[in-house]
Amino acid sequence: EGERSIEGTVFLDRLLRALHLANFLRNPFENTWLFLNVSPTVVIKGRSHGAFFKALLHAWEMPPQRVVVEITESEASDEGVLEEAAAYYKDIGCLVAIDDFGAGHSNFQRIWRLKPDIIKLDRMMVAHAARDPAARRGLVGLAGLLHEIGALVLAEGIETEEEALAVLHAEVDLLQGYYVQRPFVGPPPCLETRDRFDGLRRSLMKQAREEETEFAAGLRPYVEAFTRAAGRLAGGEPFAPAMQPLLGLRRMIRAYQLNADGLQLGENLNAPDLVAHRDPRHEPLVFAAGANWMHRHYFRRAISNPDHVQISRPYLSLTDPRMCLTLSRAVRRGPETVVLCCDLDYPVGL
How many domains does the chain have? Predict the structure, then answer.
């Protein structure tokens, strides 16, 4: 019974692929890819039912480089066979895509093993990024990581302008969904969405300018107070009194100083509001004296650009896991170089 079920799945999968290929070649789709889903069962079991796909492409005179084989992110009993199948499709000249990444059984181990050309993000991840600022920031990092792996990133299920803006903000490469183009039968329709894409680009630029203006305005008083604190520290004032005006600002978290090797000098000076609302579960992370932060980008940039305030990108603080950004500046204090740092709650403008 099981063998007959697998045989039926393989037959249906191959029939559908042949049908999609025939429909694709009936219409003048030039300079486009044909995306074909392949059942994981077929990827793993199909070889035992004889060769098929390479002969199919040859019979229809379809250049393999115009075919993207989509492997759905689902549980596979034999990862090694899945890896061999991906290598097979690449060897005959096709591109390989991982479908529905971010849902079900998706994992980076499979990405590293299969080395796909394209990774398709699950639509729920996209929808969440359009609603939640934290998820939107996370999507930026995820797309960047997938790019580092060497894959193009495709966002599927784009149905609204908000979702399109969220993935464009994350620098996703390809978009798929009803917002871009609804399914159709027959010759390809005219590109009716050109004005829509022009509008998206204008909206994205407007959004970026507004966010940058808001960010700069929100950060300005902290940079000014931090600059004054660094001046007092360089002038010989003790660390704690020099930091007190800075620590009184609303979104301040902490101030601390590092030596020229990145070693923290003393404990953090925490803002009063942080002390009052500290999560006791993170108490083991509070004590930072003697910690070395030379691996942090804010330290390296400050050492490379002395007497200039550096502003880090947002990141998750280790000391009390929360999103923050760090202002840093290398100053001379007597014969020694000290890197003054302060962490601010992120987003700063709220």
Answer: 2
Task: Indicate the residue among 207, 242, 260 that finishes a domain.
Answer: 207
Tokens of 120: 């398709």
Q: Is 280 found in the same domain as 198?
A: no
Predicted TM-score (pTM) of the model is 0.80
Domain boundary among 207, 233, 252: 207
Instruction: Return per-residue pLDDT of the chain as tens, 350 residues.
Output: 445 577 888 888 889 889 999 988 887 777 889 999 887 667 666 666 667 888 999 999 999 999 999 987 565 556 777 788 888 899 999 999 998 887 766 678 888 888 999 999 999 999 999 999 889 989 999 999 999 999 999 999 999 999 999 999 999 999 999 888 888 777 767 666 677 888 888 999 998 899 899 999 999 999 999 999 999 999 999 999 999 999 999 999 999 999 999 999 999 999 987 766 777 888 888 889 999 999 999 999 999 999 899 999 989 898 888 889 999 999 998 899 999 999 999 887 54
User: Both 182 and 286 in a single domain?
Assistant: no
Q: Are residues 43 and 170 in the same domain?
A: yes
Domain span holding position 86: 2-207
Question: Burial level of 271, CB count in 10 A (0-12/13-18/19+)?
Answer: buried
H helices present in the chain, as ranges? 2-25, 40-45, 53-59, 79-91, 108-114, 123-131, 133-149, 161-169, 194-234, 239-247, 272-276, 297-304
212 belongs to a structural domain = no
Residue 350 lies in a domain: no
